[in-house]
Amino acid sequence: MAYADTLPPQRKFGQTTRPDSWWLQPLVVFLGFSAFIVYSTWAAFQGLHDMKTGMPSYWYGGLHGENGGANYLSPFYSPEFWGVSPHAIGKLPAWWPTWAPFSPAFLILWIPAGFRFTCYYYRGAYYKAFWADPINCAVGEPRKSFLGERSFPLILQNVHRYFFYLAVLFIVLLSYDAWLGMWFTDLTGKEHFGIGVGTVVMILNAVFLAMYTFGCHSLRHLIGGYLDTKSKAPTCAKAHSCVSCLNTRHMMWAWISLFWVGFTDVYVRLCATGHLNDFVFFKF
Amino acid sequence: MNKTVTFRIWRGDATGGKFVDYTTEITEGLVVLDVIHKIQATQANDLAVRWNCKAGKCGSCSAEVNGMPKLMCMTRMDTLDTSKPITVEPMRAFPSIRDLATDVSWNFRVKTKIKKFNPRKPDCEDGTWRMQQQDVDRVQEFRKCIECFLCQDVCHVLRDHHKHDEFIGPRFLVYTAALEMHPLDTENRLAELKQAQGIGFCNITKCCTKGCPEHITITDNAIIPLKERVVDEYYDPLGWLWKKIRPQG
């Protein structure tokens, strides 16, 4: 008799003797991720309209004067290749086919999306919430077959470290955007250092994303985890220890950074479309 | 203060069984295993239950209490809602022997297939080695394992998909990590981890970590680092290139 035949039969989907609300956690994750995916897709597609009108809804320049001259760029559009804001790196090339829709976000979002999609925390979370594989611990599953991450397509999750390399570039870019957000231009074109609500939002965005990115499991391995004798490499040992510290709260930073990057886009978009006035605390 | 509780205990063997309700009185400070023993002594003399130390160190009394894998001796009654029946059933990832006792011998067979500790040559003439505490700190966490096999039980790859022939389960990934990350060990277990031991089956649900009574961070500290070592070896072209061109020291 095969060993598997001696085991208790697989339970049906959702079958469990757990009396607690085991469905709540995957439901919250499902709703949270879905909300972000829907919003970020909508925000990315807003760029289509912006490219036609030449009026970016993803960048806020403010009103020049006492409380204006801001320079806030949505993180969904940074770096802004071929865009229409002052941040833009080049214009949409003439060879771009007219029938092909274009938004600067299309060139960008796949990188942070890929980083999060292949992230070890997110994998565990969305396997539960979206695939019910399993829907929660010790709860019956909907499928009998299981391939795991050892064959196509999920074997591609092993590409995570490459997305990490790209994600680090984004921390640099978003930090630079936050720095630019500290400079307000007056009517004469002179720049003044200042801090507005948008500046704080963008600084926090870079910080939260850095806390998430630098707690990455792949980084933890690459920076020192691969060593069995870290005592011979004290710098790696220290770096591993720092990354491990962030890594213990990887889930928390994953959620905070996810929410905040969406909120940053919302804030910039509301300011850019005139629904919100950015408050400037001070400027010199 | 005494109160009455109902235990819904799975009674049966490999051919089948059913839940049977037992109502009994409990006093303050009891754990689930105490109540099981009371029921065994007063109402069900033939109830099979495996136990030994009653201190959370032998890993014998593993079962599922209210659907979650637990050590019965470490599950305090005051942590459970006694207004409803409390279910106690055997682990589902292993064949049933009788009632709450399961046949966990598969685990011991798996362990024999993992490459043993293979230390480098001794550092000193007296045949001893020298290690830095910092280097063994990481594997000491893994040595807390009491082999209760609750992590194996809650792992859906074994529990629901019955991949016992292709996947060694979290317990033995922790065991392998303890060997693989040991500062003295010279063996390479990555090929087996990738193929025969099926580390790719783990999809990081962290149920093993949540269920570990020794609070070993199984997923983050053992399984994911091993997965990353497998990536180093088999899925990272830049890593291969770096190994080819890096200065040898």
Question: What would you note in describing this structure?
Answer:
The complex is a heterodimer of chains A (284) and B (249). By secondary structure, chain A is mainly alpha-helical. Chain A has one domain (23-283). Chain A has nine helices and five strands, in the order αββααααββααααβ. Chain A has helices at residues 24-53, 104-108, 110-118, 120-129, 160-180, 197-213, 217-225, 234-247, 250-272, and strands at 59-60, 72-73, 183-185, 191-196, 280-283. In chain A, a hairpin with a 5-residue loop joins β3 and β4. In chain A, α1 (24-53) runs parallel beside α9 and α7 (217-225) runs antiparallel to α8 (234-247). The mean pLDDT of chain A is 94. Chain B has 249 residues and is of the alpha+beta class. Chain B folds into two domains: 3-102, Roll (Ubiquitin-like (UB roll)), CATH 3.10.20; 105-242, Alpha-helical ferredoxin (Fumarate Reductase Iron-sulfur Protein, Chain B, domain 2). Chain B is built from ten helices and seven strands. Chain B has helices spanning 32-42, 105-112, 133-142, 150-154, 156-159, 169-180, 190-194, 207-211, 218-234, 237-245; strands at 3-13, 16-26, 62-65, 68-71, 86-89, 96-98, 101-102. In chain B, a hairpin with a 2-residue loop joins β1 (3-13) and β2. In chain B, α3 runs antiparallel to α6 and α6 packs across α9. Chain B is elongated. The chains are: A mainly alpha (284), B alpha+beta (249).
Key features?
heterodimer, A: 284 residues, mainly alpha, 3-stranded antiparallel sheet, two-stranded antiparallel sheet, 49% helix, B: 249 residues, alpha+beta, Ubiquitin-like (UB roll), Fumarate Reductase Iron-sulfur Protein, Chain B, domain 2, 2 domains, 5-stranded mixed sheet, two-stranded antiparallel ribbon, 10 helices, 7 strands, elongated
